[in-house]
Design goal:
Elements (H helix, E strand, L loop, with lengths): L2 E17 L7 H21 L6 E17 L3 E5 L6 H8 L7 E6 L3 E4 L12 H11 L4 H15 L14 H14 L4 E4 L8 H16 L3 E5 L3 H7 L2 E6 L2 E7 H16 L9 E2 L4 E10 L4 E2 L1 E3 L4 E9 L8 E8 L5 E6 L13 E8 L7 E11 L2 E15 L32 E5 L3 E2 L5 E2 L2 E5 L1
Parallel strand pairs: 3-7, 3-8, 5-6, 6-7, 13-19
Antiparallel strand pairs: 1-2, 1-4, 8-9, 10-19, 11-12, 11-14, 14-17, 15-16, 15-18, 18-19, 20-23, 21-22
Helix pairs in contact: 3-4, 4-5, 5-6
Length: 453
Amino acid sequence: MSTVIRVENLGKKYLIGHQAVRGYATFRDAISGMARRYVRAVGRVFTGERAKGSDIEEFWALQDVSFTVEQGERVGIIGRNGAGKSTLLKILSRITEPTTGRIRLRGRVSSLLEVGTGFHAELTGRENIFLNGAILGMSKAEIKRKFDEIVVFSEIEKFLDTPVKRYSSGMYVRLAFAVAAHLEPEILIVDEVLAVGDAQFQKKCIGKMDEIGRQGRTVLFVSHNLAMVSSLTTKAILLAGGRIVEDGPTEQVIDRYAQLLSSDINVPLADRTDRAGNGDLRIAGFAIEDAKGCRSSAAVSGQDARFVIRFTRRADCNMDNIIFRVSVESLTGEKLLLFASDLTGDSFSGLPLQGNAVCTVPRLPLIPGTYRITVSARRNREVLDSISPAAEIQVLDGDFFGTGRRKKPKFGPFLAAHSWAVESVQGLMVTTPARGLTDTDGAVHGSRKSIDL
């Protein structure tokens, strides 16, 4: 095998400006302010004076990243939010330039980093297929040869001549992945964007990426779903804080990632920096309580549980239509349960400066085991705060069915209340052999009993 990707001492730096906060301004104020800032900026060039009311901070999204990928390898890139995964893929896709280091790529690169990547909103799906192929350097004849396959895979035949600006996010993803995967790239780069699609389409995409790898082409895949990474890739790279902390066989790297996540969980939520959101509301704690409201170190299968999110909020922010969510995941990242206030029709307004959001779960339907919890708060679609994972919970064995019988883990992680009955259908009689009755002489007489169906 030959090396198709070589990354050496890669670094990416951003300059973050923190401007002094001001009140609302008119359009005239904005224009005059721009003129004043321009004059002052020119003056600072000659005087070396630093801007007042602002602070420039250097932020390294990646530092000293080095690795190689061989032809035909399927490589997973994993890490927490903000670890540098998306920045790395953007550099490999030539969307942004590195600050330090260099990369060497052999072959044509096709990437799918976010919904609508590489699409022109005013063009139709048909026109965008040809546009993307041309960007990849393919001839019109090559694109035509693959055109029917792309359309069938994307499942958007009826909307092929509709401008893509009218597509839903799911339609965007289906067409974008179909184009990226079928136009024969030597290197296919896919970010978490596949999470937008439905489960059936995700399965198709995974099958296609597996096929691409078996054809000797290279796949780089970013996902928080570690089970998906484990099934699809043979090698993985773990990023943390913009640096590589593990590079090797997938299972080895996933084990290291699990260790990092477990260490994060020991940090109080108020001090966690690996969070997403604008900060208008901050999640400061998470706890489990029993049905009586008593704090507990574990939950019990079949018993009522209360998930308590402690929060604080800014005093000067709009707190209307606030939604809280608790997601339960396996240790390998598979999403199992979602408890969301928007699903139950509960949104909250006028929140206190400090408070608790409480989610009550009747008869917790999980078998015994260890699970990870993600908590988040939103204002409509805007993320205020999100921490993943925020906690680990232990679920203890309980008599869910009230029979003393236990479900075995091999049949899945969930428990569900159910009952059975045998109903009679008039006019039909079926006889089934009862157990044989043995006489003292050893003869067996087949007794029968009738059952109405």
